[in-house]
């Protein structure tokens, strides 16, 4: 049970992280992994095995869309951008996580710790 | 290497190629980043490959992520949609031709009833067979799927006729009529077998092996 909750939390946080990043600009897989690691000070880390199934899942749901484009080095990379459905999903996701942390804070004093 | 590792992932060919290409590009970026940090060739390579501990598990996850809905999407794209287009065009043309005053030529065939030749309709059917097979091929339908999409109107007609004949047999009490089986055979011949021929003729050019797009860059 605890494992399932943990897995759901980790999955949900990964979705939020990816969607939030792509809300700012289109990025390709390697960039997404790098940016998540850098922007979270190394707290969140995606490798190829964890990132791509998640990207494909989000793409299947129609929240993001991939398109081949040349990167700065002139190499073709599959850039992902947020779709209107993804943008719509991002706000409720943010709200859910905000209330989740607020609840945790009330229960465990996370931010006061 | 990535292609080899993901060989059993079971995606549609172009989808598989695209996935392999994307993952190979990721490993390439990882490798180059390692080299830029001053790692040796083999260390950078090892570091890049450590991104995936279990390729079979990754293949399973990718399959699950891409395929669950895709099974239905693929079927919709390569069978139901082309079949529906071909079916609507076939029925639409029949409706338009009959409204325009074209009548079928009929020939008596004894106890079998009437052979009906709707020549203008039969002449336009190859176009719709071709359309169904073409749309299915474009959506990467296998040969059998392309054939089914092309013959979809005839298959639907067979089902409708079977239903209508069953109802007619029960409610009109025609089951005991000695000519009933012959007449059923003739109706099926007129509305299923005959249309199948031009539909199939139109589909023939699209039933050969399809050319898959080659990846634009080499995959390591």
What does this molecule look like?
The complex is a heterodimer of chains A (113) and B (220). Chain A has a 3-stranded antiparallel β-sheet with strand order 1-3-2. The radius of gyration of chain A is 15 Å and the shape is globular. The mean pLDDT of chain A is 85. Chain A has 113 residues and is of the alpha+beta class. In chain A, 64% of the residues lie in helices and 14% in strands. Chain A has helices at 2-24, 29-39, 48-60, 84-108, and strands spanning 27-28, 64-70, 76-82. Chain B is mainly α and 220 residues long. Chain B is 70% helix and 4% strand. Residues 211-220 of chain B have low confidence and may be disordered. Classes of the chains: A alpha+beta (113), B mainly alpha (220). Chains A and B meet through helix 2, helix 3 and strand 3 of A and helix 2 and helix 4 of B.
Please give a handful of descriptors for the protein shown:
heterodimer; A: alpha+beta; 3 strands; globular; B: 220 residues; mainly alpha; 70% helix; disordered C terminus
Helices and strands in order, then pairings?
The complex is a heterodimer of chains A (about 110) and B (about 220).
Chain A: H1 2-24, E1 27-28, H2 29-39, H3 48-60, E2 64-70, E3 76-82, H4 84-108
Antiparallel strand pairs in A: 1-3, 2-3
Helix pairs in contact in A: 1-4
Chain B: H1 2-5, H2 13-36, H3 41-49, H4 55-99, E1 105-108, E2 114-117, H5 119-138, H6 143-150, H7 152-171, H8 180-203
Strand-residue proportion of chain A: 5-15%
Assign the structural class of chain A, choosing from mainly alpha, mainly beta, alpha/beta, alpha+beta, or little secondary structure.
alpha+beta
Task: Specify the number of helices of chain B.
Answer: 8
Helical residues, percent of chain A: 55-70%
N- to C-terminal distance of chain A: 26 Å
* Coarse morphology of chain B: elongated
The helix/strand series of chain A, from N terminus to C terminus, equals: HEHHEEH
Largest sheet of chain B: 2 strands, antiparallel
- Give the integer mean of the pLDDT values of chain B: 83
What does the overall shape of chain A look like?
A: globular
Radius of gyration of chain A: 15 Å
């Amino acid at each position: 049970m605890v494992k399932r909750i943990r897995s759901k939390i980790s999955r949900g946080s990964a979705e939020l992280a990816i969607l939030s990043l792509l809300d700012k600009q289109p990025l390709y897989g390697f960039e997404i992994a790098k940016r998540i690691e850098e922007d979270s000070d190394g707290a969140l880390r995606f490798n190829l095995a964890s990132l791509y199934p998640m990207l494909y899942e989000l793409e299947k749901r129609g929240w993001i869309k991939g398109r081949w484009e040349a990167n700065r080095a002139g190499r073709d990379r599959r850039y992902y951008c947020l779709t209107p459905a993804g943008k719509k999903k991002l706000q409720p996701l943010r709200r859910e996580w905000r209330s989740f942390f607020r609840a945790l804070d009330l229960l465990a004093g996370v931010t006061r710790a | 290497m990535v292609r080899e590792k993901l060989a059993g992932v079971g995606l549609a060919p172009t989808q598989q190629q695209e996935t392999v290409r994307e993952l190979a590009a990721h490993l390439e970026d990882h490798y180059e980043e390692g080299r830029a940090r001053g790692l040796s060739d083999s260390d950078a390579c090892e570091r890049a490959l450590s991104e995936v501990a279990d390729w079979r598990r990754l293949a399973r996850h990718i399959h699950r992520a891409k395929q669950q809905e895709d099974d239905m999407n693929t079927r919709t794209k390569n069978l139901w949609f082309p079949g529906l287009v071909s079916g609507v065009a076939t029925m639409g043309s029949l409706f338009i031709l009959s409204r325009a005053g074209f009548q079928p030529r009929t020939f008596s065939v004894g106890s079998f009833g009437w052979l009906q030749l709707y020549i203008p309709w039969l002449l336009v059917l190859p176009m719709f067979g071709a359309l169904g097979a073409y749309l299915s091929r474009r959506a990467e339908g296998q040969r059998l799927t392309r054939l089914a999409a092309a013959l979809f109107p005839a298959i639907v007609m067979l089902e409708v006729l079977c239903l209508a004949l069953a109802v007619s047999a029960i409610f009109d009490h025609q089951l005991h009529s000695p000519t009933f089986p012959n007449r059923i055979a003739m109706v099926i011949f007129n509305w299923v077998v005959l249309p199948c021929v031009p539909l199939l003729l139109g589909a023939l050019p699209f039933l050969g092996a399809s050319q898959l797009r080659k990846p634009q860059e080499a995959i390591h």
